[in-house]
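Researcher: Next entry in the queue.
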Amino acid sequence: MAGIYIHIPFCKQACHYCDFHFSTSLKKKDEMLCAIKKELLLRKEELNNEIIETIYFGGGTPSILEMEDINDLIQTVYDLYDICDDPEITLEANPDDLDSNTILKLAQSKVNRLSIGIQSFYNKDLTLMNRAHNADEAITCLEEVIQHFDNISIDLIYGIPDMNNERWLSNVQKVIDLGIPHISCYALTVEERTALNKLIKKGVIPSPEEEVAHSHFMLLIDKLRKEGYIHYELSNFAKPGYYSKNNSAYWLGKKYLGIGPSSHSFDGVHRSWNIANNSLYIKQIEQDVVPIEIESLTISDRYNEYIMTGLRTMWGVDLRRVEKEFGVEFFNYLKKESQRFLQDELMSLENNILTITDKGKFLSDGIASDLFWLDLK
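Model: Structure for this entry, 377 residues:
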């Protein structure tokens, strides 16, 4: 089984924190959609006829497209690839795009999962982040979406400057009250090439505080666990049966094909990424050239990737798999280097599975990097 990710590189406006690849101009939308469909054709052999179980529209803001465009892209995938009987087809969307008519059209399409970028239910936070919707639109959108969709995920951001614990828990409670089965939560991070970084340097916005983000994260874990959500990946919580199949495939090392500018692909031994430039992407695809860079992963690369992805999930890192796939040298190295984290109760070891404890979850990326195998040649 494999997945297809389609990057839609358009947004209404730039969120202050975002460093993803997108354009706020739709002038080349039609050319871009033609190029994406052609790339799907040009690369159809790469997955070796594996069955597709997930189709994911990310971005950018895929919900900025017309419903006819989305249906056309889905049909192109169906025409070119073998699709399983009940694929998970996810569309990322913003509340300001989801009016009643659009929601109804989506419900009548093959899209069966919506991932909605709420980020906060408070206008103060939304203004700081330069989101295109307001708090009322967020609530109205969700109240209507739940009438038509069962499989819904929403994004929230914590660690926002001036967001106290009460306001953060209020955000989480709204999700619970609405019965949303999946929630993805991310700490506000300051990327170098963003408006947020510039505003912080100018003193317009205070810098996010790590201690606040840590407090929000621990409150989140406790609150959602009590409400029956499973913390199956560092940033993701779901009711039983609502794990994201698309995202789980990334963390479990399954193959996926990334289509569109800046998208990434993985086939188990190679990682590749498309050029992050709309005009050059379209031009090269029109010439039957996929503008892609490919990296062959060494055994240490693949080990490090397994450590990074595995420790982010509840499934952890299997020591037996490390020994089988990477060899006894990697196995012994991991056992040795993990001892200090086990002693500090930042990790646990049960049935040969290494997992991050609640105490260590906020530090998981750092713990993983400390367990990486470094080639010092």
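Model: The chain is about 40% helix and 20% strand.
Researcher: Noted, moving on.
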